[in-house]
Amino acid sequence: MLASARTRFTRRRWRGRVGRWKTLLLVLVVAALVGGAAWVLWFSAYVRVDEVAIQGLDRLSEATVRSTADVPVGEPLIRVDLDAATERLQALAPVASVEVSRAWPHTVRITVTERQPVAVLAENDTYRALDRDGVVFRRFPDPPPGLPLVRADELAAAVKGPAGAARADALREVAAVVEALDASVARRVDHVEVASLDAIELVLRDGVRVRWGSAADSAAKAEVLTAVMRVPASAYDVSVPSMPTTSG
Prior knowledge:
Blueprint: H1 2-42, E1 51-55, H2 62-69, H3 82-90, E2 95-103, E3 107-114, E4 117-123, E5 126-131, E6 136-140, E7 149-151, H4 152-158, H5 163-180, H6 183-186, E8 189-196, E9 199-204, E10 209-213, H7 218-228, E11 235-237, E12 245-247
Parallel strand pairs: 1-3, 4-7, 7-8, 10-11
Antiparallel strand pairs: 2-3, 4-5, 5-6, 8-9, 9-10, 11-12
């Protein structure tokens, strides 16, 4: 009986040792797999960058985007700093938004959305595009047809406070007004006059004037203007959209 007990004890001890060795072996295998995967991702030539795919461009050149992104071709794909590349690209004035992502195993993909002009800012004999957010982002040799003109000298006289911040606010206000217009009305606008941020007026190509007021409630004002312009007049007032008036 004593021998039998010793045998059972020995077997249990060996089973315990075998179990521990199996656990240790499993840990070593997992560590080797993780280490191998890490080596492949961080150091292997199998997942290095060999292509930068760019899409969504309109006016921006691919060369400009590629050089600004500065993606290190030949480096392991996992080491590419996507946030840094995104930040550099967003600093380009024509870029409204950008997404930089990895496309395994060899590609960095850049998808750009460019700003679209809603008006033209005239300043010091130059013409620059103004987007819906009031951002100035490109030059035109001449005012393009179909976009209303915003004169910077009038804008400067209308704003108060720190020049940079006030100008940016004014540009956003004007852009919000123009962006709200129905396309059929926007095509008829010659220029925007800004006496103050609460006194914005549109001057149409035929000389008709539209008193807009501030940029507040621009969507409602635009809808009302489209309706009242069915009645010929020399002036429209939609500054209070619930009570539009006409004259002339």
